[in-house]
Amino acid sequence: MKSSFVLCNKLNRALVISFVAFILSFCFLIVFFVLAKDLPQIVPVHFSNGVGIDGWGNKSELYPIPIIPAVFGVLTVPVAVVCSKKDVPGFSYFASGVSLFATLLMALVAAAFLKAAGV
User: 9: buried, middle or exposed (CB in 10 Å: 19+, 13-18, 0-12)?
Assistant: First the structure.
């Protein structure tokens, strides 16, 4: 009886982490687009090592930055549900970790671009 409770608890933890990844990625998406509306039309889109900004483009070129983690966030929830039904929480943890990593990495990239654009 005790082992089934531990298994159920692990699966719920995997689902919770997946939902946190989903919510975090969509919060990032919303915050980015709220900040992006105040950007100028021409923004920095490429940085090189040691030189600084060496590429400029339209602000719409930055839109994939929050969309990529949102896609990962959307994909993690069904993966977590399927893995919880199949009693395989490990893959759910992996998918959630990838989603969280992508969200945090893109948040750092977005912070660099937004700072360079003057927001």
Answer: exposed
**CA-CA-CA-CA dihedral for 87, 11, 18, 20, to nearest 10:** 180
User: For the chain, what is the largest distance between any 2 Cα atoms, rounded to a whole number of angstroms?
Assistant: 63
- Torsion, CA 112, CA 113, CA 118, CA 119, rounded to 10: -80
Please choose, from the candidates 26, 35, 114, the residue with its C-alpha nearest in 3D space to the C-alpha of residue 77. 26
| Cα gap 21→112, rounded to integer Å | 22
Residue 118 DSSP label: T
Residue with tokens 């990495």: 105
- For 64-107, how does the pLDDT look when each residue is reduced to its tens digit (9 = 90+)? 888 888 888 888 888 888 887 888 878 888 888 888 888 888 88
